[in-house]
Design a protein that fits this description.
Blueprint: H1 8-13, H2 32-77, E1 85-87, E2 98-103, E3 114-124, E4 127-136, E5 148-151
Antiparallel strand pairs: 1-2, 2-3, 3-4, 4-5
């Protein structure tokens, strides 16, 4: 009584167009098209896997560097504050130069005078080297015209004349 046209296998694929349904037998030919398609899919999968691993490794290095930057600001200022801001784009995204800003006295973010430090270089002992910086008045964004008390080599060209 079981007919191939009413089997559960046939009913499961009946909603698909005929060209998407599984075939009971392969079409005649050498199978080169399937081999080419499979090869391309495997190459695409390898490319995506390599890109994913590369991105994860890069982000891990960036995170490690940013943690060291926060530790550097806390050690340099002797303030254990956690509301610090890090600017990675000021010197360009590939420069690996960051600017870490935080209040010089307790208070909300940007509510007090801020000390901004320019840090870069290799991580040593969980910290990086401070190469300069500047102060910002309370409640302002970090723009060149508001910076004062600039110090260090990294502040040259970053502060008003």
């Amino acid at each position: 009584m079981s007919d191939a046209s009413t089997s559960p296998e046939h009913d499961r694929w009946s909603g698909l167009p005929a060209w998407l349904r599984p075939r009971p037998v392969d079409l005649p030919g050498s199978g080169r098209l399937r081999l080419i398609e499979t090869t391309l899919l495997v190459l695409l999968g390898v490319l995506l896997a390599v890109a994913t691993v590369n991105d994860v490794v890069r982000q891990t290095h960036v995170n490690h560097r940013l943690i060291a930057d926060l530790a550097t600001w806390r050690a340099y200022t002797a303030h254990p504050y956690h509301n610090l801001s890090i600017e990675q784009e000021l010197f360009g995204p590939a420069s690996q130069h960051e600017v870490v800003c935080g209040n010089t006295s307790p208070g909300g973010p940007k509510a007090r005078t801020q000390l901004c430090l320019v840090v870069y270089g290799p991580i040593s002992g969980g910290r990086r080297t401070v190469h300069g910086g500047w102060y910002l008045p309370p409640k302002v964004e970090d723009v060149r015209s508001d910076r004062y008390g600039c110090f260090g080599a990294a502040s040259r060209g970053m502060c008003p004349p």
